[in-house]
Amino acid sequence: MKTCIDGALTNEDGVTILDHATVNNYEHANHRIADHGLVYADYYFLEVGNRLIDMGLA
């Protein structure tokens, strides 16, 4: 799990916690959005961490 998290954490701009997300990568889209951070992905990442702490698993 640590390897997955280390590979997903952003090192570039620090705007988001997780990187490499995709919103729209459809080849004919006007604006393709791929391989970047998503705020709602960060929310769920933190939510899982908090729940693990609450259960005494982290």
UniProtKB/TrEMBL annotation:
Classification via SUPFAM superfamilies: Six-hairpin glycosidases
GO molecular function term, any single one: catalytic activity
Protein name as annotated: Uncharacterized protein
GO biological process, one term: carbohydrate metabolic process
Superkingdom assignment: Eukaryota
InterPro entries registered for this protein in UniProt: 6-hairpin_glycosidase_sf, 6hp_glycosidase-like_sf
